[in-house]
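Office hours follow-up: a student asked to see two folded examples consecutively, so here they are.
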Amino acid sequence: MLSRGVSTAIRAIQKNQRITYHAITSGPSTAFHCQMKQRVQKSWKYWKIRIVTSTKNNNHGKQRGLLGFCLAFSIFKSAQQDEEEAQSAEDRIVLLLKRAKLNIIRGELEDADHILHQAIRLAHQSNNTQAIIYTYDMMANIAFLRGQLSNAEKLFKAAMSYLLGSGVEQDDNAVIEMSLKLASIYGEQNQHELAVHGFEFCIESLESKVEKQKTIENEVLSVEEKANTRLLLGMCLDSYARYLLDKQQLEAAENMYKKSLQISQEVQGESHPQTVVLMNDLATVLDLLGRHSDAYEYVKHAMELARQTSHPELHVVLNNMAGILLHQGHFPQAEQLYQEALSLAKSKGDADTVHQVQEGLQEMTRRKSAA
């Protein structure tokens, strides 16, 4: 069943209507509970998925990128060289998109958005559908990062309407990715029914697609593309799990995390950064369910892998493990890990984790006094 937000965009196409423009509580640890947008961004951080689209008449392997002509410019060329080569409208769009991407990398989102507005005008003027889709998608992502959720919703729907209008199927990975972002926006806006429908649409569509792709020969659909679909499913499961965790639907969140973890382990490997994050998150859910021993096993393995691989969020894992040990009454071990997590968080400038560790230490002091 399609989510209402997704089906609105799809129906618009069918009718030829363009859409344009964990604080510690008295119960288990909730150290991973932060704002929905932050959780979603972390959820997607380590999923490495190459999103391509398929034409309606050829869904098996003959994919085209949303904006294949973006490769026309080398990132190593100077601005002057780019200006000299940017003769056609398409070239000028690519140049603008490249500049916008560089601004995004630098964290200059307002400047990037200004450049993208120039790009979208030029894309419309030149009737370049691929450029319109790609630019709307970039604009939507920036709006989401800036907390402009209503604008992000409109932009994602606009990108999706052009994408579907170009003959792309409803279960195309690019459509699913946009649908996932819409579901996350609805979750942030507390539109629970729309969020749930959106997440379930993404998951059900991809589960069906994965099963179908198992029957397709690798010569027709590459192993990489099959893996990309599974990874996108893993990302959807992960995002839905985080949403369910926020709503305290812990058993459902556990189920989603386990499915996502299995995909990450099988496709990306046991020591992949995303696998470590999922183990840690699953441990959080189990801890909240009062299954501290099970939680400890997952977070212990996550910590071991994080140390071995110099995971950039080792301090987050250490903080979570300390909270779980705290709930088991192992105060000395918990304090040691809290202190290590605090030192690493400060060195990385992670103010959120510093605050969470400090709250954990305060809770431990209270528990010691009450013992």
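And the second, which I mentioned at the end of office hours:
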Amino acid sequence: MMKIADILESRLVEFAEIESRDQGKPVSLAKSVDIPRAVYNFRVFATAILHDVTKSDYQDQFNAINYTERMPVGVAGLISPWNLPLYLLTFKVAPAIATGNCVVAKPSEMTSVTAWMLCKIFNEAGLPKGVVNVVFGTGPKAGAAIVRHPEVSLVSFTGSTATAQRIRMDSAPFSKKLSLELGGKNPCIIFKDANLEKCVPTVIRSSFANQGEICLCSSRIFVQNEIYNEFLQKFVNTARTLKVGDPKTDVNLGALISEDHLSKVRGYVKIAQEEGATILCGEGVDALEIPTELQQGYFMRPTVITDVADSSRLMQEEIFGPVVCVVPFTDEQEVISRANSVKYGLSASVWSQDVGIAHRVAHSLQAGTVWHNCWMIRDLNMPFGGMKSSGTGREGAHDSIDFFTEQKTVCIQIN
């Protein structure tokens, strides 16, 4: 696994350029985030498995020793999404093979090139044939075949909540272990004492990184009344400075994944218009200035919408694009209730200089991860996953080892 990481790292620029071309994200983002994280995934799990400690106990009344040992589950079915292709595929493959399993992996049919390239690295690194098997195809065919196969003992899936519902049904007759990392409608809560000099650029990034095509992106921004206008002005002004265009150049946002997805995201802006919301910048307000040769591309300006009801589809459904809603709130209890009023519970972020607020709000939010005065700082030793419709199970250095193994208890009575 370390050799896989080393080879991948030596080809970082090549992989980043291909990932960008396949997915639409800026090359700079793939160079600084996607491919380095894929390298890190292999190194983290290669070392984590060396330090895994099993349990043991001595029962004096029976003169017996009990201990546990981990067993690989066998064949792991891994289905990864199109938004962070290699980043998330390797987050599944690395712990699966570190714990002794064989893998059948299916990358998204829309972004599968770097997965194919990774197969060549597996061979170059000397990974035994048959340990990792990558199949290319659509979800209803290749994905469903993995989920329904009786010899696939578990399924790790990252993608939509709707697809996960199908996976649950199809796998139920086999009692398979499931790890499902699904959608999010993540709140960002900004209290009146927040440091806006740090807050605004960070929330810009949490809203529009990767064209907003990250399940952890902030999509509902709640700002306390006292600083609402100030924040909104700074936020909109900064959003307007973001460059959209050719991912190979110095831009902040590249292209969305497909024409259909662009149409879907634009459809939410139309809903905002129909509901009488205010579009402060972006789609329908600011001109998209890109070269003629890119006019047919799937580009969209960062869009900020206000005057939206909590019941609106814009506040309830995952848009998965560069569209955010900014709304005011009065007090702590009110915003907690509103933040929790969606079916999702993946992540949240809170901005305040009051440590009491930090702990109280983090405790009350229905989210698998809560960031305070930051975003996307990930420690792989900590569990990652969602609540409610955002998923089942947790992943991370320790949790993934649990998921990809079965624990066996052995009891030996000493004569």
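Two things to take away from it. The CA atoms of residues 119 and 134 lie 8 Å apart. The mean pLDDT is 97.
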